[in-house]
Amino acid sequence: MKRSLLALIFILPVFTACTYEKFEPTPECPEAISLEIASQENTACGLETGKVEVGLTGNAASSTTAEFSLNEGTFQSAGLFEGLAAGTYTILARDGACEAEISVTIQNEDGLNAALQTEPSDCSTPTGSIRVSTSNVQGQVSYALDNAPAQSDSLFANLAPGTYSVTVTDASGCELTLQTEVSSDASYAAVEAIINSSCASPGCHGGSVAPDLRNKQTIISRSGRILARTSAGTMPPGGRLSADKISDIQCWVDAGTPE
Questions:
Q1: Residue 73 contacts by C-beta under 8 Å, 6 or more apart in sequence?
Q2: Among candidates 151, 122, 145, which has minimal Cα distance to 254?
C-alpha cells in the first residue's frame, strides 16, 4: 500500500494569470476650459515693465475658484502678471479638475525682437533644430541656448526632443529670452498598437480589468505608469516587451504624450 501511495502522481493545471494593477481614478474635468489674453503691454529694452492679463472664456468666465500661474510658478487668484521682461511666458489656469494654458510673448518696444522656428527630432538620434530670426537689431547679435555659452550663429542643431530657452542679445545690450519646444517623431499610433497587441487583451485591461487601455485618453492619462510597468517587465503578463517597443513608449512619454 505504501508503494502505491508513493507512486501516485498529481498533475496540477498551470494557469497564466493576468497580472494587473488598479489605478486610482483620475478626477475628470466636466467641461473643457480655455484662456484668452484680455490685455497686454510690452516693455522697453533692459526693463521689466511688461504685463499681461488673461481670463477664462465660455461658461467658465464667471468662475470664482479659478487660479493662475506664470511659468509653473505659484498659483494666484488673479490672471494679471506684471513686471515682465521681454520674452515668452506660459500661463496655466486651473479650475477644479480642469486646466488650460496659453502662451504670450512680451516684446521690446523700439528694440530687438526675435522669433523661433523649430524642426522635430528623431527619438533615437538628436536631429532637431532651432533657428532664430531677429528684427530691430543694433550691431552684432549673440545667441545662447539654455546655459551654454553664446554664439554668433542663429542656428542650433542636433537637438534632442525637449523644451529650450534661447536668449538673444544685440550690441546695445537689448535682450530677450524665448522658450520653445523641439518635438519628436514619437507617435501615439505606435504606442496604441503596442498596447492593443500586448496589454489590452480581453482578460487584461481590455474591458474586464480597470483601467481600460482600449481608450486613448486612458492611455494618455496613465502613460507614466504604463512606462514604469513595461520598463520593469511587470506588464504585459505574457512577458517583457522588446527593447524597441519600450523605447517607443519612453520616447512618446518624454515628448509629452502627443496625440
A1: none
A2: 122
